[in-house]
Amino acid sequence: MSNNPPSESGTPSDPNPSQWEEIMRSLFGDQADEAIAQMRERGIDPTQFAGGGFPADPAALEPLLNQVRSMFENTGDAAVNPNIAHDVARQAAAQGGDPVVTAAQERQVRQALSVAELWLDAATDFAPSTGTARALSRAQWVELTLPAWQELASPVADSVSKALAQVLKDSLPEGFGDNADDKIGFEISGIPGLPAQLSGLFGADQFNPDSLMHKIGSAVFGMQIGTAAGTLSRAVFGSTDIGLPLEKEVGTALVPANVEAFAEGLDVSLDDVRQFLALREAAHARLFANVPWLRAHLYGLVESYARGITIDMSALESSMRDIDPSNTEALQGALSSGVFAIESTPEQKHALTRLETALALIEGWVEEAVAKSALAYLPAAIPLREMMRRRRAAGGPAEDTFASLVGLELRPRRSRDAASLWAKIEAERGQAGRDAVWSHPDLLPTEIDLDDPSGYFTRQSQQDSDQSDIDAVLASIFEEAEGESDKDD
Length: 489
Fold this sequence. Notes:
Blueprint: H1 17-28, H2 32-41, H3 62-72, H4 82-94, H5 103-120, E1 133-135, H6 138-170, E2 184-185, E3 206-207, H7 209-232, E4 252-254, H8 256-263, H9 270-290, H10 294-306, H11 313-320, H12 328-335, H13 346-374, H14 381-394, H15 397-406, H16 415-436, H17 447-451, H18 456-488
Parallel strand pairs: 1-4
Antiparallel strand pairs: 2-3
Protein name: Zinc-dependent metalloprotease
Keywords: Hydrolase, Metalloprotease, Protease
Organism: Populibacterium corticicola
Protein backbone atom coordinates (compact mmCIF):
# COMPACT_ATOMS: atom_id res chain seq x y z
CA MET A 1 0.00 0.00 0.00
CA SER A 2 1.27 3.45 -0.90
CA ASN A 3 2.46 5.77 1.88
CA ASN A 4 1.67 8.85 -0.22
CA PRO A 5 -1.21 10.95 1.14
CA PRO A 6 -4.37 10.86 -0.96
CA SER A 7 -5.02 13.73 -3.27
CA GLU A 8 -8.31 15.63 -3.42
CA SER A 9 -9.49 13.18 -6.09
CA GLY A 10 -9.00 10.30 -3.65
CA THR A 11 -5.96 8.77 -5.39
CA PRO A 12 -2.40 8.73 -4.08
CA SER A 13 -0.60 11.86 -5.18
CA ASP A 14 2.42 11.51 -7.38
CA PRO A 15 5.54 12.97 -5.75
CA ASN A 16 6.64 14.38 -9.06
CA PRO A 17 4.16 13.92 -11.92
CA SER A 18 6.26 15.99 -14.33
CA GLN A 19 9.08 13.42 -14.17
CA TRP A 20 6.70 10.56 -14.97
CA GLU A 21 5.26 12.50 -17.87
CA GLU A 22 8.76 13.27 -19.13
CA ILE A 23 9.70 9.58 -19.06
CA MET A 24 6.49 8.58 -20.82
CA ARG A 25 7.02 11.15 -23.55
CA SER A 26 10.67 10.18 -24.04
CA LEU A 27 9.56 6.57 -24.44
CA PHE A 28 6.56 7.06 -26.74
CA GLY A 29 7.44 10.31 -28.50
CA ASP A 30 4.60 11.68 -30.61
CA GLN A 31 2.35 8.80 -29.52
CA ALA A 32 2.71 9.59 -25.80
CA ASP A 33 -0.78 11.11 -25.39
CA GLU A 34 -2.42 8.16 -27.14
CA ALA A 35 -0.37 5.66 -25.14
CA ILE A 36 -1.25 7.31 -21.82
CA ALA A 37 -4.91 7.43 -22.79
CA GLN A 38 -4.93 3.72 -23.68
CA MET A 39 -3.16 2.90 -20.44
CA ARG A 40 -5.90 4.67 -18.48
CA GLU A 41 -8.54 2.81 -20.48
CA ARG A 42 -6.89 -0.38 -19.24
CA GLY A 43 -7.06 0.87 -15.67
CA ILE A 44 -3.39 1.85 -15.51
CA ASP A 45 -2.79 5.36 -14.18
CA PRO A 46 0.80 6.62 -14.65
CA THR A 47 0.35 8.90 -11.64
CA GLN A 48 0.01 5.81 -9.46
CA PHE A 49 3.29 4.24 -10.53
CA ALA A 50 4.86 5.15 -7.18
CA GLY A 51 2.52 2.73 -5.39
CA GLY A 52 2.32 -1.04 -5.30
CA GLY A 53 6.05 -1.62 -4.98
CA PHE A 54 7.03 0.73 -7.81
CA PRO A 55 9.92 3.08 -7.00
CA ALA A 56 8.83 6.50 -5.83
CA ASP A 57 11.60 8.09 -7.86
CA PRO A 58 10.94 7.69 -11.62
CA ALA A 59 14.68 7.97 -12.27
CA ALA A 60 15.09 4.49 -10.73
CA LEU A 61 13.30 3.09 -13.79
CA GLU A 62 15.61 4.80 -16.24
CA PRO A 63 18.00 1.82 -16.78
CA LEU A 64 15.08 -0.49 -17.59
CA LEU A 65 13.41 2.05 -19.85
CA ASN A 66 16.70 2.73 -21.60
CA GLN A 67 17.11 -0.99 -22.30
CA VAL A 68 13.63 -1.25 -23.77
CA ARG A 69 14.03 2.00 -25.68
CA SER A 70 17.38 0.91 -27.15
CA MET A 71 15.98 -2.43 -28.23
CA PHE A 72 12.96 -1.05 -30.06
CA GLU A 73 14.09 2.35 -31.22
CA ASN A 74 14.22 3.00 -34.93
CA THR A 75 17.57 1.75 -36.27
CA GLY A 76 16.66 2.05 -39.92
CA ASP A 77 17.67 -0.92 -42.05
CA ALA A 78 20.60 -1.91 -39.81
CA ALA A 79 20.72 -5.68 -39.28
CA VAL A 80 22.80 -5.10 -36.14
CA ASN A 81 21.61 -2.46 -33.65
CA PRO A 82 24.65 -0.15 -33.54
CA ASN A 83 23.73 1.53 -30.25
CA ILE A 84 23.37 -1.74 -28.36
CA ALA A 85 26.53 -3.15 -29.97
CA HIS A 86 28.51 -0.07 -29.00
CA ASP A 87 27.27 0.10 -25.40
CA VAL A 88 27.74 -3.61 -24.72
CA ALA A 89 31.19 -3.63 -26.36
CA ARG A 90 32.40 -0.72 -24.26
CA GLN A 91 31.09 -2.36 -21.09
CA ALA A 92 32.79 -5.66 -21.94
CA ALA A 93 36.06 -3.89 -22.81
CA ALA A 94 36.07 -2.09 -19.46
CA GLN A 95 35.71 -5.25 -17.39
CA GLY A 96 38.86 -5.72 -15.34
CA GLY A 97 40.06 -2.22 -16.19
CA ASP A 98 41.21 -0.42 -19.30
CA PRO A 99 44.46 1.48 -18.64
CA VAL A 100 45.02 4.70 -20.54
CA VAL A 101 47.89 4.50 -23.02
CA THR A 102 50.84 6.40 -21.61
CA ALA A 103 53.25 8.54 -23.61
CA ALA A 104 56.01 5.97 -23.00
CA GLN A 105 53.81 3.14 -24.32
CA GLU A 106 52.89 5.20 -27.37
CA ARG A 107 56.57 5.81 -28.09
CA GLN A 108 57.50 2.14 -27.61
CA VAL A 109 54.73 0.93 -29.91
CA ARG A 110 55.58 3.38 -32.68
CA GLN A 111 59.25 2.45 -32.49
CA ALA A 112 58.50 -1.29 -32.59
CA LEU A 113 56.22 -0.87 -35.62
CA SER A 114 58.82 1.28 -37.38
CA VAL A 115 61.53 -1.34 -36.81
CA ALA A 116 59.15 -4.04 -38.01
CA GLU A 117 58.68 -2.26 -41.32
CA LEU A 118 62.44 -2.11 -41.84
CA TRP A 119 62.87 -5.82 -41.14
CA LEU A 120 59.96 -6.80 -43.38
CA ASP A 121 61.46 -4.98 -46.36
CA ALA A 122 63.83 -7.93 -46.73
CA ALA A 123 61.12 -10.57 -46.30
CA THR A 124 58.44 -9.50 -48.80
CA ASP A 125 58.07 -7.55 -52.02
CA PHE A 126 54.91 -5.92 -50.64
CA ALA A 127 55.32 -2.26 -49.71
CA PRO A 128 54.48 -0.99 -46.20
CA SER A 129 50.91 0.12 -45.60
CA THR A 130 50.41 3.86 -45.69
CA GLY A 131 48.08 3.88 -42.66
CA THR A 132 48.77 5.36 -39.25
CA ALA A 133 50.77 3.52 -36.57
CA ARG A 134 49.00 3.74 -33.19
CA ALA A 135 48.94 2.50 -29.61
CA LEU A 136 45.37 1.78 -28.53
CA SER A 137 43.50 1.29 -25.30
CA ARG A 138 40.87 -1.46 -25.29
CA ALA A 139 38.08 1.08 -25.66
CA GLN A 140 39.89 2.66 -28.62
CA TRP A 141 40.26 -0.77 -30.22
CA VAL A 142 36.50 -1.24 -29.89
CA GLU A 143 35.79 2.14 -31.49
CA LEU A 144 38.21 1.38 -34.32
CA THR A 145 36.97 -2.11 -35.18
CA LEU A 146 33.28 -2.21 -34.21
CA PRO A 147 32.03 -1.02 -37.64
CA ALA A 148 33.80 -3.99 -39.23
CA TRP A 149 32.26 -6.44 -36.75
CA GLN A 150 28.84 -5.04 -37.58
CA GLU A 151 29.53 -5.38 -41.30
CA LEU A 152 30.79 -8.91 -40.79
CA ALA A 153 27.68 -9.97 -38.87
CA SER A 154 25.11 -8.06 -40.93
CA PRO A 155 24.55 -10.70 -43.67
CA VAL A 156 23.99 -13.39 -41.06
CA ALA A 157 21.85 -11.12 -38.87
CA ASP A 158 19.71 -10.11 -41.83
CA SER A 159 19.12 -13.74 -42.82
CA VAL A 160 18.21 -14.69 -39.25
CA SER A 161 15.77 -11.76 -38.96
CA LYS A 162 14.06 -12.81 -42.20
CA ALA A 163 13.87 -16.41 -40.99
CA LEU A 164 12.35 -15.27 -37.70
CA ALA A 165 9.78 -13.17 -39.56
CA GLN A 166 8.85 -16.12 -41.75
CA VAL A 167 8.39 -18.37 -38.73
CA LEU A 168 6.14 -15.74 -37.15
CA LYS A 169 4.12 -15.37 -40.36
CA ASP A 170 3.66 -19.14 -40.58
CA SER A 171 2.19 -19.12 -37.07
CA LEU A 172 -0.43 -16.48 -37.90
CA PRO A 173 -4.04 -17.35 -38.82
CA GLU A 174 -4.62 -18.13 -42.49
CA GLY A 175 -5.43 -15.00 -44.41
CA PHE A 176 -3.82 -12.68 -41.86
CA GLY A 177 -2.23 -9.76 -43.66
CA ASP A 178 -4.73 -9.69 -46.50
CA ASN A 179 -6.29 -6.73 -44.72
CA ALA A 180 -4.07 -3.66 -44.61
CA ASP A 181 -5.28 -3.03 -41.06
CA ASP A 182 -4.01 -6.39 -39.78
CA LYS A 183 -1.30 -5.76 -37.20
CA ILE A 184 0.34 -7.67 -34.40
CA GLY A 185 0.01 -6.14 -30.95
CA PHE A 186 3.27 -6.55 -29.06
CA GLU A 187 2.75 -6.53 -25.32
CA ILE A 188 5.59 -6.94 -22.86
CA SER A 189 3.72 -8.84 -20.18
CA GLY A 190 4.86 -11.73 -18.06
CA ILE A 191 8.54 -10.95 -18.63
CA PRO A 192 10.44 -11.72 -15.40
CA GLY A 193 11.81 -8.60 -13.76
CA LEU A 194 9.25 -6.26 -15.32
CA PRO A 195 7.00 -4.64 -12.70
CA ALA A 196 3.33 -5.55 -12.96
CA GLN A 197 2.34 -1.91 -13.49
CA LEU A 198 4.14 -2.01 -16.87
CA SER A 199 2.43 -5.22 -18.05
CA GLY A 200 0.24 -3.29 -20.49
CA LEU A 201 2.60 -0.44 -21.17
CA PHE A 202 3.38 -1.45 -24.75
CA GLY A 203 -0.11 -2.44 -25.79
CA ALA A 204 -0.30 0.72 -27.89
CA ASP A 205 2.68 -0.29 -30.01
CA GLN A 206 1.76 -2.21 -33.14
CA PHE A 207 4.24 -4.06 -35.34
CA ASN A 208 3.99 -6.08 -38.51
CA PRO A 209 5.95 -9.37 -38.46
CA ASP A 210 8.88 -8.10 -40.55
CA SER A 211 9.29 -4.96 -38.45
CA LEU A 212 9.00 -6.79 -35.14
CA MET A 213 11.47 -9.54 -36.02
CA HIS A 214 13.87 -7.05 -37.57
CA LYS A 215 13.98 -5.04 -34.35
CA ILE A 216 14.38 -8.12 -32.16
CA GLY A 217 17.02 -9.65 -34.43
CA SER A 218 18.87 -6.35 -34.67
CA ALA A 219 18.91 -6.00 -30.87
CA VAL A 220 19.99 -9.61 -30.32
CA PHE A 221 22.87 -9.38 -32.77
CA GLY A 222 23.81 -5.95 -31.43
CA MET A 223 24.26 -7.44 -27.98
CA GLN A 224 26.04 -10.50 -29.35
CA ILE A 225 28.49 -8.59 -31.53
CA GLY A 226 29.09 -6.08 -28.76
CA THR A 227 29.88 -8.88 -26.30
CA ALA A 228 32.30 -10.59 -28.67
CA ALA A 229 34.05 -7.39 -29.79
CA GLY A 230 34.38 -6.14 -26.22
CA THR A 231 35.73 -9.49 -25.02
CA LEU A 232 38.19 -9.63 -27.93
CA SER A 233 39.47 -6.17 -27.02
CA ARG A 234 40.91 -7.66 -23.84
CA ALA A 235 42.81 -10.36 -25.76
CA VAL A 236 43.93 -9.01 -29.15
CA PHE A 237 47.34 -7.47 -29.69
CA GLY A 238 46.55 -5.25 -32.67
CA SER A 239 44.05 -4.43 -35.38
CA THR A 240 44.78 -7.37 -37.69
CA ASP A 241 45.92 -10.33 -35.61
CA ILE A 242 42.61 -12.23 -35.78
CA GLY A 243 43.13 -12.71 -39.51
CA LEU A 244 40.42 -10.36 -40.76
CA PRO A 245 41.03 -6.78 -41.93
CA LEU A 246 39.03 -4.70 -39.48
CA GLU A 247 39.87 -1.31 -40.99
CA LYS A 248 38.98 -0.11 -44.45
CA GLU A 249 42.02 2.15 -44.37
CA VAL A 250 44.66 -0.36 -43.33
CA GLY A 251 47.06 0.83 -40.65
CA THR A 252 49.03 -0.72 -37.80
CA ALA A 253 48.28 -0.70 -34.10
CA LEU A 254 49.09 -2.49 -30.86
CA VAL A 255 47.19 -2.63 -27.56
CA PRO A 256 49.96 -2.14 -24.94
CA ALA A 257 47.88 -3.46 -22.01
CA ASN A 258 47.29 -6.77 -23.79
CA VAL A 259 50.88 -7.04 -25.03
CA GLU A 260 52.21 -6.55 -21.52
CA ALA A 261 49.72 -9.02 -20.04
CA PHE A 262 50.78 -11.63 -22.63
CA ALA A 263 54.48 -11.09 -21.86
CA GLU A 264 54.03 -11.67 -18.12
CA GLY A 265 55.42 -15.02 -17.05
CA LEU A 266 57.21 -15.70 -20.35
CA ASP A 267 60.94 -16.37 -20.53
CA VAL A 268 61.13 -13.61 -23.11
CA SER A 269 61.63 -9.92 -22.50
CA LEU A 270 58.74 -7.51 -22.98
CA ASP A 271 60.74 -5.69 -25.68
CA ASP A 272 61.15 -8.91 -27.69
CA VAL A 273 57.49 -9.83 -27.30
CA ARG A 274 56.42 -6.35 -28.40
CA GLN A 275 58.75 -6.47 -31.42
CA PHE A 276 57.50 -9.91 -32.47
CA LEU A 277 53.86 -8.83 -32.25
CA ALA A 278 54.70 -5.62 -34.13
CA LEU A 279 56.15 -7.75 -36.93
CA ARG A 280 52.94 -9.78 -37.15
CA GLU A 281 50.80 -6.65 -37.17
CA ALA A 282 52.90 -4.97 -39.85
CA ALA A 283 52.98 -8.13 -41.99
CA HIS A 284 49.18 -8.44 -41.88
CA ALA A 285 48.84 -4.77 -42.76
CA ARG A 286 51.18 -5.11 -45.76
CA LEU A 287 49.21 -8.07 -47.08
CA PHE A 288 45.82 -6.37 -46.76
CA ALA A 289 47.13 -3.09 -48.17
CA ASN A 290 48.75 -4.70 -51.23
CA VAL A 291 45.98 -7.21 -52.00
CA PRO A 292 42.96 -4.92 -52.46
CA TRP A 293 40.53 -7.74 -53.29
CA LEU A 294 41.28 -9.75 -50.14
CA ARG A 295 38.93 -7.92 -47.76
CA ALA A 296 35.99 -8.19 -50.15
CA HIS A 297 36.83 -11.85 -50.74
CA LEU A 298 36.69 -12.71 -47.03
CA TYR A 299 33.53 -10.75 -46.36
CA GLY A 300 31.98 -12.25 -49.50
CA LEU A 301 32.53 -15.73 -48.10
CA VAL A 302 30.68 -14.68 -44.95
CA GLU A 303 27.81 -13.39 -47.09
CA SER A 304 27.74 -16.65 -49.08
CA TYR A 305 27.45 -18.54 -45.84
CA ALA A 306 24.60 -16.31 -44.65
CA ARG A 307 22.33 -17.26 -47.55
CA GLY A 308 19.69 -19.81 -46.68
CA ILE A 309 20.08 -19.76 -42.90
CA THR A 310 17.42 -21.64 -40.97
CA ILE A 311 16.71 -21.47 -37.24
CA ASP A 312 15.16 -23.72 -34.62
CA MET A 313 12.50 -21.67 -32.84
CA SER A 314 12.17 -24.23 -30.05
CA ALA A 315 15.85 -23.69 -29.22
CA LEU A 316 15.33 -19.93 -29.26
CA GLU A 317 12.33 -20.12 -26.92
CA SER A 318 14.11 -22.54 -24.60
CA SER A 319 17.20 -20.35 -24.34
CA MET A 320 15.28 -17.14 -23.66
CA ARG A 321 12.66 -18.58 -21.27
CA ASP A 322 12.84 -17.18 -17.72
CA ILE A 323 15.60 -14.73 -18.64
CA ASP A 324 15.34 -11.38 -16.86
CA PRO A 325 15.89 -8.67 -19.52
CA SER A 326 17.38 -6.40 -16.87
CA ASN A 327 20.04 -9.06 -16.13
CA THR A 328 22.47 -8.33 -18.94
CA GLU A 329 24.92 -11.09 -18.06
CA ALA A 330 22.19 -13.77 -18.04
CA LEU A 331 20.83 -12.52 -21.35
CA GLN A 332 24.28 -12.50 -22.95
CA GLY A 333 24.90 -16.01 -21.64
CA ALA A 334 21.70 -17.24 -23.26
CA LEU A 335 22.60 -15.60 -26.55
CA SER A 336 26.05 -17.22 -26.50
CA SER A 337 24.71 -20.75 -26.16
CA GLY A 338 23.84 -21.46 -29.78
CA VAL A 339 20.51 -19.72 -29.46
CA PHE A 340 19.74 -19.84 -33.19
CA ALA A 341 20.72 -23.49 -33.67
CA ILE A 342 21.77 -22.80 -37.27
CA GLU A 343 21.79 -25.82 -39.55
CA SER A 344 24.41 -25.46 -42.26
CA THR A 345 23.57 -26.51 -45.81
CA PRO A 346 26.21 -28.09 -48.10
CA GLU A 347 26.67 -24.71 -49.79
CA GLN A 348 27.24 -23.02 -46.44
CA LYS A 349 29.72 -25.68 -45.36
CA HIS A 350 31.61 -25.12 -48.60
CA ALA A 351 31.75 -21.37 -47.92
CA LEU A 352 33.00 -22.01 -44.37
CA THR A 353 35.71 -24.33 -45.68
CA ARG A 354 36.85 -21.67 -48.14
CA LEU A 355 36.85 -19.07 -45.36
CA GLU A 356 38.89 -21.28 -43.06
CA THR A 357 41.33 -22.00 -45.90
CA ALA A 358 41.70 -18.29 -46.68
CA LEU A 359 42.36 -17.47 -43.01
CA ALA A 360 44.94 -20.26 -42.86
CA LEU A 361 46.68 -18.93 -45.98
CA ILE A 362 46.82 -15.44 -44.49
CA GLU A 363 48.20 -16.75 -41.20
CA GLY A 364 50.69 -19.02 -42.95
CA TRP A 365 52.00 -16.21 -45.16
CA VAL A 366 52.39 -13.91 -42.16
CA GLU A 367 54.23 -16.62 -40.23
CA GLU A 368 56.72 -17.11 -43.05
CA ALA A 369 57.28 -13.38 -43.57
CA VAL A 370 57.77 -12.78 -39.85
CA ALA A 371 60.10 -15.77 -39.43
CA LYS A 372 62.26 -14.65 -42.34
CA SER A 373 62.43 -11.02 -41.20
CA ALA A 374 63.16 -11.86 -37.54
CA LEU A 375 65.71 -14.63 -38.14
CA ALA A 376 68.81 -12.45 -37.78
CA TYR A 377 67.51 -10.11 -35.10
CA LEU A 378 65.10 -11.91 -32.74
CA PRO A 379 66.20 -15.30 -31.35
CA ALA A 380 62.92 -15.62 -29.40
CA ALA A 381 60.92 -15.56 -32.65
CA ILE A 382 60.85 -19.37 -32.94
CA PRO A 383 59.25 -20.14 -29.53
CA LEU A 384 56.97 -17.12 -29.88
CA ARG A 385 55.84 -18.40 -33.28
CA GLU A 386 54.91 -21.75 -31.81
CA MET A 387 53.08 -20.06 -28.94
CA MET A 388 51.06 -17.94 -31.36
CA ARG A 389 50.17 -21.01 -33.42
CA ARG A 390 48.70 -22.73 -30.39
CA ARG A 391 46.92 -19.58 -29.26
CA ARG A 392 45.32 -19.01 -32.67
CA ALA A 393 44.34 -22.66 -33.06
CA ALA A 394 42.72 -22.81 -29.63
CA GLY A 395 40.83 -19.53 -29.95
CA GLY A 396 39.08 -17.94 -26.99
CA PRO A 397 35.69 -17.10 -25.47
CA ALA A 398 34.85 -14.33 -27.94
CA GLU A 399 35.78 -16.45 -30.97
CA ASP A 400 33.67 -19.28 -29.53
CA THR A 401 30.82 -16.79 -29.19
CA PHE A 402 30.87 -16.05 -32.92
CA ALA A 403 31.10 -19.75 -33.72
CA SER A 404 28.17 -20.69 -31.49
CA LEU A 405 25.96 -17.89 -32.80
CA VAL A 406 26.58 -17.95 -36.54
CA GLY A 407 28.91 -20.90 -37.10
CA LEU A 408 31.78 -18.65 -38.22
CA GLU A 409 35.20 -20.04 -37.48
CA LEU A 410 37.79 -17.30 -37.05
CA ARG A 411 40.55 -19.80 -36.28
CA PRO A 412 43.05 -20.78 -38.99
CA ARG A 413 43.25 -24.43 -37.93
CA ARG A 414 45.54 -25.28 -40.84
CA SER A 415 48.09 -22.50 -40.49
CA ARG A 416 50.96 -25.04 -40.19
CA ASP A 417 50.01 -26.61 -43.53
CA ALA A 418 49.66 -23.16 -45.08
CA ALA A 419 53.08 -22.04 -43.79
CA SER A 420 54.67 -25.20 -45.25
CA LEU A 421 53.00 -24.51 -48.59
CA TRP A 422 54.22 -20.91 -48.72
CA ALA A 423 57.75 -22.09 -47.87
CA LYS A 424 57.65 -24.58 -50.78
CA ILE A 425 56.36 -21.91 -53.16
CA GLU A 426 59.15 -19.53 -52.16
CA ALA A 427 61.77 -22.28 -52.49
CA GLU A 428 60.54 -23.02 -56.02
CA ARG A 429 59.71 -19.53 -57.33
CA GLY A 430 61.44 -17.11 -54.99
CA GLN A 431 60.04 -14.40 -52.77
CA ALA A 432 58.49 -12.47 -55.66
CA GLY A 433 56.83 -15.62 -56.99
CA ARG A 434 55.42 -16.40 -53.56
CA ASP A 435 53.87 -12.94 -53.20
CA ALA A 436 52.61 -13.01 -56.81
CA VAL A 437 50.18 -15.80 -55.86
CA TRP A 438 48.11 -13.09 -54.14
CA SER A 439 47.66 -11.19 -57.41
CA HIS A 440 44.27 -12.83 -58.11
CA PRO A 441 41.84 -14.92 -56.03
CA ASP A 442 41.83 -17.65 -58.69
CA LEU A 443 45.54 -18.22 -58.02
CA LEU A 444 45.09 -18.89 -54.30
CA PRO A 445 45.90 -22.39 -53.11
CA THR A 446 42.91 -24.52 -52.14
CA GLU A 447 42.14 -27.01 -49.39
CA ILE A 448 43.59 -29.73 -51.63
CA ASP A 449 46.88 -27.84 -51.76
CA LEU A 450 46.97 -27.68 -47.96
CA ASP A 451 46.41 -31.46 -47.89
CA ASP A 452 49.25 -32.05 -50.35
CA PRO A 453 51.67 -29.09 -50.56
CA SER A 454 54.19 -31.13 -52.60
CA GLY A 455 51.64 -31.59 -55.39
CA TYR A 456 50.81 -27.87 -55.66
CA PHE A 457 53.06 -27.19 -58.67
CA THR A 458 51.83 -30.25 -60.56
CA ARG A 459 48.23 -29.14 -60.11
CA GLN A 460 49.11 -25.59 -61.11
CA SER A 461 50.82 -26.81 -64.29
CA GLN A 462 47.80 -28.95 -65.14
CA GLN A 463 45.48 -26.01 -64.47
CA ASP A 464 47.59 -23.75 -66.70
CA SER A 465 47.56 -26.42 -69.43
CA ASP A 466 43.79 -26.81 -69.21
CA GLN A 467 43.36 -23.03 -69.37
CA SER A 468 45.62 -22.89 -72.45
CA ASP A 469 43.50 -25.55 -74.14
CA ILE A 470 40.33 -23.60 -73.37
CA ASP A 471 41.91 -20.40 -74.70
CA ALA A 472 42.93 -22.21 -77.90
CA VAL A 473 39.41 -23.58 -78.44
CA LEU A 474 37.87 -20.13 -77.84
CA ALA A 475 40.36 -18.51 -80.23
CA SER A 476 39.48 -21.11 -82.90
CA ILE A 477 35.76 -20.44 -82.46
CA PHE A 478 36.26 -16.69 -82.76
CA GLU A 479 38.44 -17.09 -85.88
CA GLU A 480 35.85 -19.36 -87.50
CA ALA A 481 33.05 -16.92 -86.69
CA GLU A 482 35.08 -14.04 -88.08
CA GLY A 483 35.74 -16.02 -91.29
CA GLU A 484 32.04 -16.73 -91.77
CA SER A 485 31.31 -13.04 -91.26
CA ASP A 486 33.83 -12.11 -93.96
CA LYS A 487 32.20 -14.56 -96.41
CA ASP A 488 28.77 -13.02 -95.76
CA ASP A 489 30.18 -9.57 -96.46
